[in-house]
Amino acid sequence: MINVTKTFLPDQEKYLQYVREIWERGYLTNNGPLLQQLESELKDYLKVDHLYFCGNGTIVLQIAIKALEITGEVITTPFSYCATSNAILWEKCIPVFVDIDKDTFNIDPDLIEASITPATTAILATHVYGNPCDVEKIELIAKKHNLKVVYDAAHAFGVTYKKRSLLSYGDISTCSFHATKVFHTIEGGALISNHPELDEKLSLLRAFGHQGDESYHFAGINGKNSEFHAAMGLCNLPHVPEIIAARKEVFDTYDNQLNWDVLERPVKNKDIEYNYAYYPVVFSSEKVLKDVLEALRVQEIIPRRYFYPSLNTLPFMPGQISCPVSENISERVLCLPLYVGLPLTDVERISAIINSVLAP
């Protein structure tokens, strides 16, 4: 069976050496030495000043909203994983969906201002498939209307925009280190902040809001991560360049094999160094997509409808705002298998199956 992704695993003995060290110290969590080492190495790798390693990619969105004291309405994208909008709801805010750009699949900045009301306090946008939002336009809008900006950069680890880490944009960017990501810590996530004055607040928010036994500051949450997860990150981080290179090879093979006369895909920003996180293709209709899914399923090939459905259509979302571009693309987009170690012969076979379904 070929799944849409497969977790990269480092040398087992290297990981076990870290585990033996953890055993000897007896220090398993609560901001341990390996976690601090990983944070330091991640800051060096990404060239960012303020990074906080946390439990997962959803809790960091919630902490970001809390840290920036975001309330009321939050402008956001309907084309993302549900964690993006769920975090807004969990923090008692109201997601206001703005449709996406038909070329990049990111939130359309030209539509944002029309949705701003006196209750709007922030913009929470996703760098879809690791492709940057229009960060310059969003920053101008945010400054004009005194809004906070949070980027869900779950897909963007290792991506640079204009020679700068994409994770360094916005008031806070969040990242996911889930086992399926380009860089993973089994489960994990990170907060990247441009505000040194938030250092202590972010650190406290992920650890119940208190220091030591008696110093309580505010109601925080358990956003911590363990030494075992940090150890996996320390094992994987040195491999990121080769991981990206291997994914690019798969990516390029799809590029060369698929029939682009009848397929579409998002337009990649020209000013980035990409991480090849996902390989999305867009079919002419949902029916064609389902035909392709069935043809691949018969061969035990499992891609993913990512993202589907458009978040604005979920029954528990308030307002049920229409986003026709997102709704249309979400019905027709499919992410194809992409991971380190996927044989290029299988990439060619997947492409041939898809092309055969698309053939007139």
From TrEMBL:
Q: Name one GO molecular function term.
A: pyridoxal phosphate binding
Q: Which UniProt keywords apply?
A: Aminotransferase, Pyridoxal phosphate, Transferase
* Keyword Transferase found: yes
Task: Spell out the catalytic residues.
Answer: K181 (proton acceptor)
Q: Which GO terms describe its biological process?
A: polysaccharide biosynthetic process
Q: Which domain of life is it from?
A: Bacteria
Residues bearing N6-(pyridoxal phosphate)lysine?
K181
Q: Which family does it belong to?
A: Belongs to the DegT/DnrJ/EryC1 family.
This chain belongs to which protein, by name?
DegT/DnrJ/EryC1/StrS family aminotransferase
Source organism per entry reads Dyadobacter psychrotolerans
Phylogenetic classification of the source organism: Bacteria, Pseudomonadati, Bacteroidota, Cytophagia, Cytophagales
